[in-house]
Amino acid sequence: MTSLSRLTFGILLAATMTIGCSGDGSSSTPGTGGSTAGTGGGGGGTTGTGGGGGGTTGTGGTTGTGGTGATFMAMIPCPDEASYTTTGTTVMFGGALLSNYAPKCLKVSAGATVTFSGDNFAFHPLQPSTMRGTLTGNPITLTNTGMSKAFTFPNPGFYAYLCMFHGLDDAEFMNGVVWVQ
């Protein structure tokens, strides 16, 4: 074998070992597969090449675990984690005190359904916030008829809402947040 052929073979062997085929090219060392993945399993190794007849087939990586819920985010009207209640899945609104959603700060698990119930939505139209919290994928939609409406929250996040007539995004007045974990 010429010097150039040996050099080329050495480079190819080093590249093969770098991409995870065979550990050292011997027939007794198994290759390794993918690494731990965030949402799926790693890929399997390939049959090694090189000296000693090639390595054995590698093994796949371990399956990763799912993500966690949204970490705390302070916003009006929920300045700290203690502001959130985990009791119930109904938010009452309207009545004598227009500034009230009760509770204003509700924490639920992903997949939970939250019902807004109270005065007529014609007097207190519910709408998602466009300035606070998770701004995409908010399951709350503009609701201006009826007295009760349920929304399912499939994904973790902070879903802010307000009364179209009486709420403000930048003040504690007829607004709230659903924190989905």
Please, could you describe this protein's structure?
Strand 3 (90-93) and strand 4 form a beta hairpin. The protein starts with a helix and ends with a strand. 9% of the residues lie in helices and 28% in strands. The protein has 181 residues and is mainly beta. It folds into two domains: 3-59, no CATH class; 81-180, Immunoglobulin-like (Sandwich). The chain is built from one helix and ten strands, in the order αββββββββββ. A four-stranded mixed beta sheet has the order 4-3-6-8, with no helix packed on it. The chain has a four-stranded mixed beta sheet with strand order 5-10-9-7, with no helix packed on it. The protein has a two-stranded parallel ribbon with strand order 1-2. The longest helix has 16 residues, at 3-18.
DSSP E strands, number = 10
**Alpha-beta content class:** mainly beta
CATH topology name of the largest domain, in short, is Immunoglobulin-like
Instruction: Indicate how many domains the architecture comprises.
Output: 2
User: Which CATH class of the largest domain is shown?
Assistant: Mainly Beta
| Total helical elements | 1
Q: Give me the Rg, rounded.
A: 28 Å
The main β sheet shows up as:
4 strands, mixed
* CATH architectural name of the largest domain: Sandwich
Strand order of the largest sheet: 4-3-6-8
User: How would you describe the oligomerization state of the chains in this entry?
Assistant: single chain
One letter per element, helices H and strands E, the order comes to HEEEEEEEEEE
- Give the % helix: under 10%
**What's the end-to-end separation, in Å?**
64 Å
Overall pLDDT confidence:
73
Low-confidence stretches: 1-55, 57-66
Q: β content, as a range?
A: 25-35%
> Rough shape?
globular
CATH superfamily of the largest domain: Cupredoxins -  blue copper proteins
